[in-house]
Each structure stands twice: as C-alpha cells, then as structure tokens.
Write a structure and sequence with these properties.
- Two copies of one chain form a homodimer.
- Chain A starts with a strand and ends with a helix.
- In chain A, a hairpin with a 3-residue loop joins strand 19 (about 375) and strand 20 (about 380-385).
- Chain A has helices at about 15-30, 45-55, 65-70, 70-85, 120-125, 150-165, 195-205, 215-220, 275-285, 310-325, 325-330, 355-365, 390-405, and strands at about 5-10, 35-40, 90-95, 100-105, 115, 130-135, 135-140, 145, 170-175, 180, 190, 195, 225-230, 240, 255-270, 295-300, 305-310, 335-345, 375, 380-385.
- Chain A contains 13 helices and 20 strands.
- Chain A has a domain at about 5-175: Carbamate kinase (3-Layer(aba) Sandwich), CATH 3.40.1160.
- Chain A is globular.
- At the A-B interface, helix 2, helix 3 and helix 4 of A face helix 2, helix 3 and helix 4 of B.
C-alpha cells in the first residue's frame, strides 16, 4: 500500500483503444490497494498539430502564448482518461498543472519545476480518487501557463513521485525498456535490466529517446526507482533505473547511442584573455542555447580556437548571435559544419578501463569512419562522425562490445 | 478613450483569414485610443468535435471532466489571436477564465458567474496590452474549471464589460444584427436598429440565436450598451440593445421567432391539493430541467391537469423522472407530444394592444395552422404549432405585421 506514479506518453494514449490499455495498468495497481497518480502526455500527434497551426499564424514564436496553446494537448487527455475511469466506476479526477499547482520558473517553453504543492493531490488520494495529471505543464508565480519542453511529462511524473514520496515511478512507453543500442539500427541489441541514474543520464542526453534527461536527474536526487515499461507488452519486465550501481559491475559498457542533427561551430582566433571563453558561453546561455561538447585548442600565441556543438535547430540562431557579437568577442572567424552525429558509449568506470576507448576507435577505423571530435567523461566516450556514417558506427561499436567473444 | 469589450463567436474565428478580420476590428479600436478586451469562442466546430470525441469515450456525461475537455477550445483561440496581434507588433496577452479569475458556482456545464476579479485585466490594460479572454469558462471556489453552456461567450463578454465599467460591448457575429424574423425562413425580414433588453431577452429565449439570454440579462442589470454587428460586413451598423425603449414606440412588434424541438407533457389528474404543483416543478428544477410554457387547467373536482413544454432533448429524462415519481405526485396519467414548435411575436406593449393577438391568430387561421397552446406576457405572444407548420407560421405572421399596409 503506497503511492505509485504512472506515466503514459503520447503514443500510449493516442487512441481510445490505447486509453483502454492504460486504464488496465491503472486498475491493476488499484487492485493491489495502491494509490495511483497518473501523468499523461498529449494524444499522439496532438502537440505537433498544434505547433503546425501555430506556425500558420506566425513564424516567430511568442513563448508565453505558445505555452497557452500547446498545454491544451495534455488537458484533453486527462479529461478523457478521467471520464473513461469514471465510466468503469472508479473515482477519478483530472488536474492541470496550474490546479495542483506545479510551480515553475517563467522560462516559457522550457521551464523548470520550482515546487510542487502536493496538498490537492493528497486530498484527492485520501478520498479514494485516481488522480490524473496533465504532464509537461505548470504555472509560474504570476499565474502564467508554462511548459517543460518536449518529453517534459517524464519530468512531471518523477517530480510528483518525489513530492508525494511515492514508492516508485513507472514510465510506460511504446518500447519495453532501455536497450544497449537503437533496435532500428542494431538488430542484436540487448535489453538492460538495471541501470544507474548516471548511466541513464548519459544515455538520455546522448539521444536515447527513452527517458527525458531532467526526469532522471530528479530521480537521482530524490532516489525514486524509475521503471521503464511497455504499455502494450505486459509480459516484459522493462528496465529499472536506480542508484544500485553494483548490478552493473560485471558489464563494461551498457549501451551505444547516437544523436544525429548535431552541428559544430568553430570560433577561430578568439582573443586569449581571461574571461573571453566565459563571455562566449554566457552569451549563448542567456539566449537559451544548449552547448554540448566543447573543445578548446590554443592557436597563435595571443588567440585560441574554440569548437563546440549545438543542436541543428539551434544552429541558425547561434550563428546569428555570434555574428552580432563577433567584435565584442574579438573573434577572427566563425566556421561551422552541419550534418554531424554524436556516437557515444556509456558505462560505469569507462575512464578506468583504457581498452574501451581503443576498442571503440578500432571499430570505427575498421569501418573507415572518420572522427571529427572526441570527448570522454567518467562514464562515456563520444565521437563526432558524419551523419551518413552514424548508423554504421553504432552497429560497428555494438558488435565490438556486445557480439565479440574476445573483448 | 474608454474600455471596449469585443466578442467574436466561433464562426468569426474559424480560420486564420477570419482571425485576420478580427484583428482589424481590434486594431480599429486601438487606433481610436480605446483600451480593448476581446472575448473569443472556440474556432468553428472545435467544441462539437471535442464533444464527439467525448461521446466516443463514454455516453454518460461526467460534468466536471466535460468542462475540463471543452474549455480547451477557447484556450486555443486566445493563444492564436494573441500571437497574431503580437506578430503585427501590438502588445497582446491571452487569459483563460481561471487566470482572470472569473469566479462561478460549481454547476458544471452550465455554471453562472459569481464575481469577476478585474485587477489582472486592468493591470494588463494599464500597461498597454490588448487583453484576449477565453469566453465560456470560469473557475469555481475550489479551483475546478467550469463552463457556461452554449453561447456562454456572450455572457463572458457582457459580464466583463460590466465588471470593467466598459463603454460598450460589441458582439461580432456572422449576421449583421437582429432581424424581425429568421432570414432563412422569411425573405422580407427587416433589421432592427435598436431594441430594448426586455425585447431582446424574449427574442433570445424564443430561439433567436443571435444573443445568449444571460448576456442580455447582465446587460440590462448593469446597463451596458450591446451592439450586435457583423464581423465581415463592415458597412452594416448592426443592432443596438439598450434600455431606451422610446425608440420603439412607433413599432408594434419587433420580431417573429420560432423555437423548434419543443415537446409538451401533460399530467392528467394531478391531485388538486396545495403544494402538488410546487412539488412537480421543484422536482424538475432539482433535475435541472428547464420548463418553459406552463398551462394549468382544472379537470374533475379533486384533480387538475397541467401541461408544460420542455426542450426535445430533455424529454426522455423528464418522462423518466415523472414516471419514477408518479405515485408521489399522485398523477393519473402522463402524456406527451413531440415535434412541436413555439412561434412567438415580440414587442413592447403587446399586452396593451388587443389587435395584435387577433392579427397573429388570424394569420395562422388563414394558413390552416393549428394552435396547440397559447401564452402571453407583457411583451410577447407565443403559440405552439406542429413543427411542420412552423416555417409557414413565421412567414404568415411576419407578412401580417411587416408587409401589409392595413395593419
């Protein structure tokens, strides 16, 4: 008897038939005498459709109004799911982000949760209700609607689990867990039974679309066990994301992943003066541009070159901002390469096993794949390759680590 | 320089092209240095579509969740209109009912406004914003979303005009004013330039779909001039609804209207005892059934017959409730007729002009139209006819009053 938070993504709630499946998962927990809080996304392609309609009105994004518009997707789902459960004679109640309320900062389209008031939910649970919560949305201190960006329903779910002191958070999706690579690229993938928050974070930020990054961060901070499960394949056990790294000690790497749509920007001849690098990245952060890999190399004696990657859809704006501030940064030249892909391997203790990087590079070399950039951390190694090489790179690396006996 | 409230209905905001027209009306008032509050409905058939989706989930209506679902329609419109105005470099901000907040009772699907907090809107106006408000929706004291029933955006608009002490409220629609009859039935209709609140109330409740009843009531109570105008025909002056009855003294009747989908229920042999009639209508009111015409005739010495009309879609439920309580009401028999239509004429002082009723009945008699029931009030006369006769009845009556010289 405890609180279980279940989250169902857009593809799990896309149709009425699928909502029926969702209700079965909920009722299963109710039958086990658990209290259930359900977080849902917008149905199917609803959010995409709303954004397409928005683009017809204006090419420019007006963030506050954008959030007012797209937040209706989840509101539709909560109402329907609550109705469905009520029609099956279960007490259910829907709540929008502002009704809970889930307080966030005012960073529209990509806001972060500041505080969740759990009194309303707890009262509904106490009086025997299944509580259906709209994912992805909150309210700022001035009463404006905010949204968390794509995948934000995962964040809602794990944050609620933390706030409600839930036993666990189940993330239901259309895949049945986290895999060692993308099954669409590598056909010999292995499902991971248990993975640490840290590894999952790397997998998430590396382009594995299974879990939203911030949700894993919150899970880690509040130590919430997160199960990634299939909505439709009931037999599958899924993947447990937890803090128990010991499970993994026998494995060297846990997964191979790729992130296409990467572009690299190189700033040539940045003045080699204290504060210039800081100035550069502060400028980008103020404009909400997420910089990923950063490599700094010294050029001529009074200047340095800095290369970093941004997502393809941030490229145009990043270049614009840099050109505007070229003089202020005293940069000589701003270059960029598009159509790159970041291929990474993830695994606890990679840093302590020198053979791992070598094996990765060997797999790429054997397949004639050019590496444009390399970065490493405690638990991952990433290389930048041409996007045309990325599938081959994932396959080759996966084979090297998972399918050969001699590693 | 004052506050103008403009309301645009579903057909006025149905497409992007139409939203462009809407923005022109708004900008016109801004250019006159007015402060503008805009109330909009859901786009085109959005609400119908949502209700169709709801019916796929469950045949039974769960009122709280119904309101959560259908209120998204207006939320989509406010976001789009605010974006459109911002893209034209006007400051605009959208507000949902709960953000204002518009406080209502908890009578989901048909709630009434209790109080409008005007501080948020006034602050946005003060700082130079066009305020775009979602019509048809509010919030109850427990933070639940409520809606006002069909046509409720009119109510939002006039109630806001009252709360903000606006100069006037413009109701933009796809017709260019209030007519003496439905132009689809009578092709010689005359547009009414000015009409009193009372007459408009009768026209509204009689099935003229131009203005929502409650909005006229609020207009009357707070003396808000209401203009009914066309969104698309800019030359037309529209109809002014006001308290100035003097304009109308030269006219005998102001309009002919009909309301199809009426059914009549007759309770035969109700015990002729004090309180029985009260008991009957209290029972129906408790079940939220709106009773319209009531005619009571004494039958045998210890019983009486009562006939009354309800809307067709309330008929089944009304009969069910009456059958359940037949014994308690000590009624002998419950009869009903379907497929009736109420045809009415509206005009100040009808009661004082005996020729009016006679002319109306004469028009029906000349066309062989049978009257099933008659009621009169200070400013209207209604007759119940077969629904198949209703168009002919409206035409005949209209001709009698508006097109013949000798009246």
């Amino acid at each position: 008897m405890g609180i279980i938070v279940q989250k169902f993504g857009g593809s799990s709630v896309a149709t009425l038939e699928k909502l029926e499946k969702v209700s079965e998962h909920i009722i299963e927990e109710i039958n086990k005498k658990n209290q259930v809080v359900v977080v849902v996304s917008a149905q199917g392609k609803t959010t995409d459709r709303l954004i397409a309609e928005e683009k017809e009105v204006t090419k420019k994004v007006y963030p506050r109004e954008h959030d007012v518009l797209v937040s209706v997707g989840e509101q539709i789902t909560i109402a329907k799911l609550a109705m469905l459960l009520k029609s099956k004679n279960y007490n259910a109640v829907s709540l929008c982000g502002w009704q809970i309320p889930i307080l966030t900062d005012s960073n529209y389209t990509n806001s972060r949760i500041r505080y969740i008031h759990n009194e309303t939910i707890n009262e509904y649970l106490r009086t025997g209700n299944i509580v259906i919560v709209a994912g992805f949305q909150g309210i700022d201190e001035n009463g404006n609607i905010t949204t968390f960006g794509r995948g934000g329903s995962d964040t809602t779910a794990v944050a609620l689990a933390a706030s409600l002191d839930a036993e666990r958070c189940d993330i239901f999706t259309d895949v049945d867990g986290v895999y060692s690579a993308d099954p669409r690229i590598v056909d010999t993938v292995k499902k991971i039974k248990t993975i640490s928050y840290e590894e999952m974070l790397e997998l998430s930020s590396m382009g594995a679309k299974v879990l939203h990054n911030r949700c894993v961060e919150i899970g880690k901070k509040y130590n919430i066990p997160i199960y990634v499960k299939s909505t439709f394949e009931r037999k599958s056990l899924g993947t447990l994301v937890t803090n128990k790294e010991s499970f993994l000690e026998d494995l060297t790497i846990n997964g191979v992943t790729k992130d296409d749509y990467i572009s690299r920007i190189t700033i040539v001849g940045l003045e080699n003066k204290i504060g210039k690098t800081y100035q550069l990245f502060k400028l980008l952060s103020e404009n909400s541009i997420n910089v990923d890999i950063i490599v700094q190399s010294f050029g001529e004696h009074i200047t340095k070159d800095i290369a970093f990657t941004v997502k393809m859809n941030d490229l145009a704006r990043t270049l614009e901002i840099l050109e505007e501030n070229k003089e202020k940064l005293s940069a000589k030249e701003i270059l960029h390469s598009e159509n790159l892909s970041k291929v990474s391997i993830i695994g606890v203790g990679i840093a302590n096993k020198p053979g791992v990087a070598a094996s990765m590079f060997e797999a790429l070399y054997e397949n004639n794949i050019n590496m444009h950039m390399v970065t490493t951390s405690e638990i991952k190694i990433s290389v930048l390759v041409d996007v045309n090489d990325s599938d081959l790179a994932v396959k080759a690396i996966h084979q090297k680590f998972f399918e050969t006996e001699n590693y």
